[in-house]
Each structure stands twice: as structure tokens, then as C-alpha cells.
Specification:
This protein is mainly α. Helix content is 70%, strand content 0%. The chain has eight helices and no strands.
Amino acid sequence: MNVKAALTSGKARIADYASNKDPRAAAGNLVALVLAGNAPFYPAYVVLVAGSDGMPWLLMTVLSFPFFFGIPAISRAHPLLGRIALSLVATANTVFCTWLLGAPSGTELFLLPCAMLASLLFARSERPLMFALAILPVAAYLILHDRYGIPPHIYQPDAYSRLFSMNAVSAGMISIFIGFVFADRLSAVRTPS
């Protein structure tokens, strides 16, 4: 099998795994798989930007991989539960990484795309659930900001500045990606309100 055929086959398997009859679940599944695919590389990004002093603690950021990767399987069995799980996993992962790296790293900025994701995952008829899950990242920020405690490793101020910039750009990019995915998936299908 050549490289092009292997890539095509892999892409087809990923698309099949992410597919769902519920267009919101399908969009959420794609977002979850992109987040899962990024998880193993996040420690490398941090090392490139801030150095390797945070090892081995930094490797704990990879713990989110199986949770994000499992979302499509949950969605296949129960689409609503998969959408709820994605919202909760994204918020919990952001809180965990903020504790792990420290609030000055800017990881708290990922709470914004978490709130956005929760607001897009649910239909108008699911508004109470949407509100509860969209407000959760906001509540996490209000309750936990500057109260995470001391992280396992404290970076130097210049490293925190670089981490903050990297995470700000990343949070913005994932927000844009979420918008594109949901606009694409939901515009193709008329969904019940």
C-alpha cells in the first residue's frame, strides 16, 4: 500500500468513526477527534516554546487523548450523551491543564472555546442543557481563577509569556475551527429547533 492510499484509507476510517445521524453529534465528533489528535503533540509545543523544564509533569496533558477519542463511540450509542460528554471533557481538560501549567500559561483561555462549543452542541429545544454546559466554563473561570494552587512546575516569566501567546493563538484557532465545522455540518442539514 502506498502512502497516498494509506492516507486516503485512514481519512475514510476517521470520517466513518466521526459520522453520526445527529448533525450536532457528527460536528462534535470531528472536533473531539481533532482535539484527540492534538493531545499527543501539546507537550512538544510547550517544550518548543517554554523549554523542557516542566517534564515529566508536562506529559500529563496527554491524559485527555482517550477521553476525546472515545466521544464518537459514546455518540454512536447515544448522540445526546456524546455531546454532553464532549462539553464536560473539554472543560475538565482545560481546568486540569490550567492547574498543571499554571494560570499564567494562558490555558484558561481555552474556556472560551469550551463555552462556544457547548452553545453549538445543543438545539433550541435543549436550551436548558446548553445553558448549563455553556455556563460551566465561565463558572470554572470565576471560581478557580487564581485559586488553582501551585502547579507541579513553575516556569520563568518569559516562558509564561511565550506560553500565553501560544495558547491565545491556539484558543483562537480552535474557536475558528469549531465555527467552521458547525457551520459546515449544520448548513447541509435542516435540523429541528
